[in-house]
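Usage example:
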Amino acid sequence: MRILITGGAGFVGTHLALNFKAADAATKIVAFDNLKRRGSEINLAKFKSAGIEFVHGDIRQPSDLEDLSGNFDLMIEASAEPSVLAGLNGSPQYVLQTNLTGTLNCLEFARRRAPQVIFLSTSRVYSIAPLRRLKLRETDTRFELLPNQEIAGISQDGIAENFPTNSPRSLYGATKLASEMILQEYVESYGVRAVVNRCGVLAGPGQFGKTDQGVFTLWVARHYFNHPLTYTGFGGSGKQVRDLLHPRDLFELIVKQFERLDDCSGEVFNVGGGNGVSTSLLELTDLCRQATGNRVEINSVASSTKVDIPFYISDCAFASQRFGWRPNLTTTEIVTEIADWIKQNENQLKAVFT
Ligand SMILES: NC(=O)c1ccc[n+]([C@@H]2O[C@H](COP(=O)([O-])OP(=O)(O)OC[C@H]3O[C@@H](n4cnc5c(N)ncnc54)[C@H](O)[C@@H]3O)[C@@H](O)[C@H]2O)c1
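Running the assembly step on the lines above writes:
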């Protein structure tokens, strides 16, 4: 079997590549990446020892994809400019050209040479205004959903696939939503078999977290290296909530989806840790103190940016029902794995995180 992973040297791409290889050493895996994300180059050594081929290329250039040799049984589209802030304070060119034009280049490649696709989309396709209108109550440590919400697609289990997407969602979210729609047309028009996974926050070792993306890993790292942090937005109390998912759990789902692509092609799934694997920043601070033994200064900024949302938990009932899938790793296990990774690679990671 031959698998192409675009964005293959990124956080998620690397986990998927290593997991597929570990599951079957005979699988040929090509990790294709332009190494735009700082830290991705660190993963290349892992590919070498695992027997994974790395190709330096850019999905914005169709010819870079064309130059790949042979056909593939599966393409996992995991390349992106993954920051919700992308383009907000400058040109939108990179996020548009990678997340939209680049993904379309990947689909066009798939039509001819890799007609089975798993596309990593995002929970950020959901519109910001209704997410900011959710009725929440504030406990000592987090925001929680109140019963009787007035918007479609929201229940005590979180946000489902029919939550509104029809008003602004950030450039990042909009490029992913547009790509999802074109992907469905490729399924309909050309017989490409593909699914869309709208991922909530993914977190785990190997993520080179920044304030605008990968914040959970950054939180652990800043504790480890004794650097200050800031609770930003929604009063600055750190009570905003997200679910989180370890890429190993995502891998388990992708394996099941690949086995059954014939009956789920064109479908869209919310994928995340759900209610059971969620945390507020405030609660995360406590876990980071336990995992690292350090307490760091945490500042507070009350105001939010226009793309901030106070609460997101994925309702994954559809994926669970379709594939009998549920996440296994808990918030504490994910934080512990991140802390262990940083400890084991302290010298290399210090420059990335501080
Ligand atoms: N990490 C999360 O919390 C999260 C949540 C929801 C969705 N996703 C999606 O999952 C996918 C993987 O995210 P990640 O966390 O691994 O991000 P990442 O930044 O670690 O990985 C993305 C990779 O894509 C590469 N890349 C960027 N532009 C490229 C281009 N033009 N051509 C080729 N490669 C390019 C980067 O160098 C990087 O290695 C993305 O599509 C992202 O939108 C991630």
